[in-house]
Amino acid sequence: MFTLSQTSRAWFIDRARQAREERLVQKERERAAVVIQAHVRSFLCRSQLQREIRREIDDFFKADDPGSTKRSALCIFKIARKLLFLFRIKEDNERFEKLCRSILSSMDAENEPKVWYVSLACSKDLTLLWIKQIKSILWYCCEFLQQLKPEILQDSRLITLYLTMLVTFTDTSTWKILRGKGESLRPAMNHICANIMGHLNQHGFYSVLQKHFS
Fold first, then answer.
1. Are 165 and 103 in contact (CB under 8 A)?
2. pTM, rounded to two decimals
């Protein structure tokens, strides 16, 4: 039989073990609580940031006041970066449509180089960022085209919009920036177009076109 001292010692050891386990469990709970709280705070911060950015984008695309000056290519570029940063195809489809219309409108401006969206391709500091941006925008155009149905009137209008985007930025023939003295830029711009086309082809560009032209 165990002596009283042995029993007391065993009880003490068992109690110490239980206390250690309880402390470990408590520490794990506290650690889990900290992690959960951090995730919640991060989610709330991201959600708030996204709401603020979307509100800024919506304000940007509100109808201009009569007589207001056209937005510069740089302004469009900056707002496009913000939209692409948080872009969700279902939630931001109308914003994306407005972005594309704004870009195409800038390309139609007469004798306003700072307005032409493509003019940023000539900027030493922005060329690579611009190419990356237009690649993303054009591929989103392709993704929308895959979902749209030409027999639906609203869809047919969007199909025209996104096809126009694709045609405009894969062929330099309509770029006003290349007129007159800008003709010297044509080889470089053709190279950029080839780069963009290569990117689109790698992602299945022709399969998208076949859906609407086969």
1. yes
2. 0.78
Q: Quick one: pLDDT at residue 214?
A: 59
Rounded distance, CA 80 to CA 74, Å?
Answer: 10
* Length of the chain in terms of residues written: 214
Contacts of 171 (CB under 8 A, 6+ apart): 193
| DSSP, res 123 | -
List Cβ neighbours of 123 (8 Å cut-off, separation of 6 or more).
130
SS3 labels along 145-183: HHHCCCCCHHHHHHHHHHHHHHHHCCCHHHCHHHCHHHH
Q: Looking up tokens 């299945």, which residue turns up? A: 204
The HSE-up count of residue 21 (CA atoms within 13 Å, CB side) is 6
Query: Where does the chain have alpha helices with state H?
Result: 4-60, 73-86, 93-108, 127-147, 153-168, 186-202, 205-213
| DSSP symbol at 203 | T
pLDDT at 66: 46
